[in-house]
Amino acid sequence: MPAITVDDLTVLDRLPVPGLGDTVRPIKQIIDAPSGYEGEGFPVRRAFAGVDLRDLDPFIHMDQMGEVEYAPGEPKGTPWHPHRGFETVTYIIDGVFDHHDSHGGGGTITNGDTQWMTAGSGLLHIEAPPEWLVQAGGLFHGIQLWVNLPKDAKMNAPHYQDIRSGQVGLATSADAGALVRVIAGKVGTTEGPGSTYTPMTMVHATIEPGARLELPWDASYNALVYVLSGHGSVGIEAKPLRMGNLAVLGAGDFVTLQGATTQDSRTPAFDVLVIGGQPIREPVAWAGPFVMNTKAEVMQAYEDFQKGRLGTIPSVHGAPTTLQEG
């Protein structure tokens, strides 16, 4: 898993452990994310399937893309499609992905990079592996998270953030057995570079076998733990978790995780994505690529898309030029 690593974790800032009066977040729900396909046919796990939107707020949707080893000619992406009313956060752990949008945002991300696209009032975009990767094949693994926007920001101008792996905040657990990458928000004194409309935190942690991670967490945020690979446990209940599991946690000041003492040879550590944010607590009307507050606003988004008001496909060499409504 080549997302940014550190050879000597002891040189990093240590995260605090729970103190007197602190509460470790209890487990509300554990689900096993079902598998499916997205875009032109790349495999995904639907990380939030079966979870009440009230427990996800301010998040809407998350896919684990891969992990898959493509043969030559197999890598796939998505065709041009519209979005309005939310943000997409694409975090690539293994492989390479290109992104282009109708507002000029985009670029190439790989191995720990993040693309943070605020769709806002609306745009068209495309995500696909570069042509050389399509020809050669290779490993691909990533996450795409949809973050809702509050009503007063849904029609803001689209915006794009290009976050490189070397920019993420780095910390370690009290026992120096876990590498904590802070992509957005703040954990202890460590901050991530992601700039968000809705206050939130996004962390990718690699926990070594037997190590324990006590992750301080804003008490006003929700907390979700998704397992990218390996085995471990969550909470003071030490409920077991494995790849593809999502744990929905209750209220508290800390998220507690522990790596299993024995991991398989393919996944030598317990890798998790921990996300949480301040709930927006507004009505959600969601249909396909649009996340608004009312059905009428969703219908307006479809009309605006069909009449070309969300932008036009720019000239991008080698990119498909067909549209998908989502």
Automatic annotation (TrEMBL):
It comes from the Bacteria. Residues 42-147 form the Pirin N-terminal domain. Fe cation binds at residues 81, 83, 125, 127. InterPro entries: Pirin, Pirin_C_dom, Pirin_N_dom, RmlC-like_jellyroll, RmlC_Cupin_sf. It holds the Pfam family Pirin_C. Binds 1 Fe cation per subunit. Its cofactor is Fe cation. Transmembrane segments: none annotated. Keywords: Iron, Metal-binding. Residues 202-310 form the Pirin C-terminal domain. GO terms for molecular function: metal ion binding. Belongs to the pirin family. This is Pirin family protein. It comes from Nocardioides marmorisolisilvae.
